[in-house]
Design goal:
Elements: E1 2-6, E2 12-17, H1 20-23, H2 29-42, H3 102-118, E3 122-125, H4 135-145, E4 150-154, H5 160-166, E5 172-176, H6 182-187, E6 190-194, H7 195-204
Parallel strand pairs: 1-3, 3-6, 4-5, 4-6
Antiparallel strand pairs: 1-2
Length: about 210
């Protein structure tokens, strides 16, 4: 499939042929959901920890005698039903990570790219480079391209000036091609790829 390529200034830069195997698939929501769930679960810290009855620093002596009081039988004051006792079935530190085959992860990325291409939310830019690291000039360039909510993917080596200038703009994420992922693609409205990023993706999925 052929797409029009543009410059950061919004001028025509010719056409670029995209691989049908990467950008021309029929997007499947079930695969995208599985990959997003895997990503979000993987990044959870899992450091939440509640104190159980074994973690409470409190006397282990029997609260009162077993018989003759007319009250219920109780032993340790660390039990969950008492104020200051441990929490029953509370969260413990653990990994939330789930397994997902590499082939499904790769397929999820292809479907995310295809979803943007199919929805006309994919822009290919010839080169992501600016002379000066000025946010104002980059905002003006984005206005010409109609970008208000976007994920911008550059090549393996991104222009330092562009990255620095674009990092201050709200609702705009800038990543090198190594950091491209399904969640960030779907959470932003428009996907902007540089020519170098397209070439790197096609090389990756050969």
């Amino acid at each position: 499939m052929d797409v029009k390529m543009t410059t950061l200034a919004g001028k025509d830069a010719g056409k670029l042929k995209l691989s049908e195997a990467i950008f021309g698939l029929d997007p499947r929501e079930d695969i995208l959901q599985r990959v997003v769930r895997w990503q979000l679960a993987k990044r959870q810290q899992g450091t939440h920890q509640a104190k159980g009855r074994a973690d409470i620093a409190r006397t282990g002596a029997k609260m009162y005698r077993q018989k003759g009081t007319g009250r219920a039988r109780h032993s340790s004051a660390r039990a969950p039903q008492f104020r200051g006792g441990g929490k029953a079935h509370g969260p413990i530190a653990r990994s939330h990570e789930i397994e997902l085959p590499k082939k499904v992860r790769a397929l999820g990325l292809k479907h995310a790219l295809s979803a943007k291409a199919k929805g006309s939310m994919l822009i290919v830019v010839d080169d992501l480079a600016v002379k000066e690291a000025k946010t104002k000039s980059v905002i003006e360039a984005f206005a010409k391209l109609g970008l208000t909510n976007a994920l911008i993917i550059g090549g393996a080596e991104m222009d330092a000036n562009f990255r620095k200038a674009a990092s201050n703009i709200p609702n705009v994420d800038v990543l090198p091609v190594q950091g491209i992922n399904v969640y960030d693609i779907l959470r932003r409205g428009t996907l902007v790829l540089s020519r170098a990023a397209v070439e790197a993706l096609e090389e990756r999925f050969k």
